[in-house]
């Protein structure tokens, strides 16, 4: 790959990364200024945030320079649909756990959504497989090993 | 996946075979006990021991233990206050550590909101120095602190915890400025102990149990316990009898959610009263080496209030809480 | 020679058929639970401890040792096969191990990990039996300033995981350092970067970050590129077993890994992660196949895996000789002792030698049992990769989230896991190395708190770093390691000019 001749244009995504690093630097700095208590002896809780923020600032600048020169690696086109499916599955899991839907239902949906993201078309079959897997995990870990997993309507049947 | 399933399956069989619990006479009560910490720690062990004692003594029909770890118990407490209001079957294990961490974490929920039920166990703090230290007793330590508090370094548990508070109280009682306390918090008991044994710090402070075997082996010198009077079975002087006024214990207890009726509260207190007297509970205390410090109902409520007030004052005096 | 006789006695106890059965059950249970990411050996032991309550002390300790080693083995297996580190100490294993598995070399990867663990575990257990009392005297001399210096050495070696761009590698490392700031400041109890979210007060869990970046990030990345080229996994390409070349490339890393792992594990605040970093970077420097690193080099599995195993045995040094529980697992082991009213400590070796030696013998047995059991099963394990891709990744996600939920049943934790998954995806897309993030999260907070402890004890005098001989030596090593590559490069250029 000969970058120097063909990709001399600024890379928008690269600049965005640099910008995000700048924002994080600012956040750390702002958070550091809100600390009220310092150590009596030796460096206090602000020292490390200052070091990290300074380093990150330099790196943000370095990343920005690389992006301006178009020095980022080549990227392939990407398919957003499977990503949204998987993240949707995770979101469903979070929502179900947060609102008392339980571990089993959430895991079932996550399993089926991920399988769909990887090209499976048999959503119902996958739901059944996920459901069986989730129940198996639940029985072993929550019932036999007394781990506390999030409870919901199905869990309460056991 | 086949091998994995087989493994799980076999473990299932083994667990079922070995762990077959025998439940005695059934009672009416169904309880849920929350340990506001991960599995394995002190609160978790307390919750699971209560589960064992309550079911085996036939005080409750079923007891379910849940873990809500995080932030020294603040997250568990928030859940108890916000999600379990009025639930008379819910209990939460807590302790003195929670009193301090709620203050340093600036927690939005407080222990004033819960219904105090009972104090169960306590452990006194021990102050130790390396065996070759010139400090022989509490007076020596107090004198060193009075001379220059900065040069007396303390190793103990997390900032704002019971170890830290006890060290601050000692400094105060020794007549020195507690804001000058040079306290070095360590994350685990082992790490602090290593620093004391290696002579990296002047003194160490933690629960007596943490130091017991080192003291017996002669690697650490026990300066004293933070108990008001001598503790049975432990051959050690108190700090108080050596003329430094210090009285603090790391206790554990249980509370119920807010919004339960007086009658429901009485039921829970009664259950705890019964449990504390049961031979099952006493056997557990014995096995785990926990000191019984049972106190329930109004007495515990009052005690809890006093501890909160005192802790707030101490933490403000060492500058960990801005008042 | 007393130690030999005592050990032989311990072995005869451990070799009784009923005790062998307990060891077998322990190893199976430990492996089964330990494969869950997020559930490391400590939690595995915590969960299974009640089962051992019901046995006599000898049998219980033996089952215990089995569970412990089984849990560790389970963690490495998932690292290699599905890129999901079961615990922070097997994170490095995933770097090369998973690349090997994807190239159809999962069999040799699992084998070198199992044999390496056995070799290192055995060496470390022998070290424990014969060197413990001497080693502990040195270990206890390590003060906060010395740990800080050790962290400096570790930081310098991290560059081995940077890939080809220093800027991108450092960016990754600093993201890890930022994540390490999140939570309660250990020394003053104040919250940093928590933005009022109480769940963040305890900081970022290393396994949540590692599982998010590695497992979830990978799933997102692979799924987003399926339309370009289908990823075809072949469970076995070439030999299922280690070839002669594999053996030749593995045995030195095993020994070096044990040499890193055991002493650092024996330090009260040493941990099992740092030896794996040191081992990885050493192997990368010493290998004759540097081009394979990052694409599945067997040395990168053999070294770190034996290092973390040796470190685990190392943590038993302070535990048995001083009663210091220096890791979560050691703390659980302490609980295991306490259920029989035993307090490990300076007197345990003298008062209850049969139990101590019984435990050490059980470690040998468990280690051997694991090897005997798992080597024949390597073929079955790698067949996991033959599961159709949609179900394989769906299963990985279920296990990843399940492990996280089991360790901390809070929706916030899953949100964090997902955010780290997206981060892992973006970092893969823009070619930022992933391992330095985890390294930063592990090392940053330790370095910070140890330095602040050292300076608090010295009342702010930085000279303490040079006054301690241990610290001064380690800092010199770090400095040399930092400068040497530049010097060598310069000399190489000089030579080239001369030619």
Would you mind describing this structure in some detail?
The complex is a heterotrimer of chains A (158), B (323) and C (499). By secondary structure, chain A is an all-alpha fold. Chain A folds into two domains: 3-68; 80-157, no CATH class. In chain A, 66% of the residues lie in helices and 0% in strands. Chain A has six helices and no strands. Chain A has helices spanning 3-6, 12-33, 47-68, 80-98, 103-117, 123-144. In chain A, helix 5 (103-117) packs antiparallel against helix 6 (123-144). The longest helix of chain A has 22 residues, at 12-33. Chain A is flat and about 55 Å long. Chain B has 323 residues and is α/β, with parallel strands linked by helices. Chain B folds into two domains: 27-120 and 251-315, Bordetella uptake gene, domain 1 (D-Maltodextrin-Binding Protein, domain 2); 123-249, Periplasmic binding protein-like II (D-Maltodextrin-Binding Protein, domain 2, 3-Layer(aba) Sandwich), CATH 3.40.190. Helix content of chain B is 43%, strand content 22%. In chain B, strand 1, helix 2 and strand 2 form a beta-alpha-beta unit. The longest helix of chain B is centred in the last third of the chain and has 21 residues, at 297-317. The model of chain B is unreliable at 1-27 (pLDDT under 50). By secondary structure, chain C is an all-alpha fold. Chain C has one domain. Chain C is built from 21 helices and two strands. Chain C has helices spanning 2-14, 17-34, 41-52, 57-82, 91-102, 106-139, 144-157, 166-181, 206-224, 244-266, 273-286, 299-314, 316-322, 328-338, 348-351, 353-383, 389-407, 411-429, 435-457, 464-467, 469-498; strands spanning 183-184, 191-192. In chain C, helix 6 (106-139) packs parallel to helix 10 (244-266), helix 7 runs antiparallel to helix 19 and helix 7 (144-157) packs parallel to helix 21. The radius of gyration of chain C is 22 Å and the shape is globular. The N and C termini of chain C lie far apart (60 Å). The model of chain C has no long low-confidence stretch (mean pLDDT 83). Classes of the chains: A mainly alpha (158), B alpha/beta (323), C mainly alpha (499). Chains A and B meet through helix 6 of A and helix 1 and strand 2 of B.
